[in-house]
């Protein structure tokens, strides 16, 4: 069980029904719950084409696959009608292997904190409106196999030599 340093009143089991009205997810001890609720609010989650609600466990959300410890293993919100910017907190999804957020109305900069996702094997953030550059931290991900960043017309960058650091990379668009 994950200690609940962020919310000391969080029980380690579901002692309260998910439908109970509460502004804080008291029954979900995973830090990943906080991260995805922040993503939900930052990208107009009420309009997503995926079934999701801050008052339910993220492991019940459409497009979210959790491991046995209720940590996010895969997040697939491709074409889910996300609108907004990605929060820096995404870099706290320590167990995530696949992050798919393409074909959404995402804009702003790509969070450098994605470089903290050391287990990430797949990063798909194409068909969006990101601006700025691709954070150099992404080119340090040890297990990244697939990286799709194409169709982001507002990014101004060139493929850096650090791409050679991605020893596992086999697909780059």
Structure, briefly:
This protein has 173 residues and is mainly β.
Low-confidence stretches: 1-27
**Overall outline:** globular
Mean pLDDT over the residues: 87
* Class of secondary structure makeup: mainly beta
Q: How large a portion of the residues is in β-strands, by DSSP E?
A: 15-25%
Largest sheet strand order:
1-2-4-6-8-9
- Termini separation comes to 38 Å
What Rg, in angstroms, do the CA atoms define?
A: 16 Å
Oligomeric organization of the protein chains: single chain
Order of helices and strands: HEEEEEEEEE
Number of helices: 1
Give the total of beta strands: 9
What order do the helices and strands come in, and which of them pair?
Blueprint: H1 31-42, E1 64-66, E2 72-76, E3 83-84, E4 98-100, E5 105-108, E6 122-124, E7 129-130, E8 146-148, E9 171-172
Parallel strand pairs: 2-4, 3-5, 4-6, 5-7, 6-8, 8-9
Antiparallel strand pairs: 1-2
Please explain how this structure is put together.
There is one protein chain. This protein is mostly beta strands and 173 residues long. It is built from one helix and nine strands, in the order αβββββββββ. A six-stranded mixed beta sheet has the order 1-2-4-6-8-9, with no helix packed on it. Strands 3-5-7 form a three-stranded parallel beta sheet, with no helix packed on it. The N and C termini lie far apart (38 Å). 31% of the residues are buried. Residues 1-27 have low confidence and may be disordered.
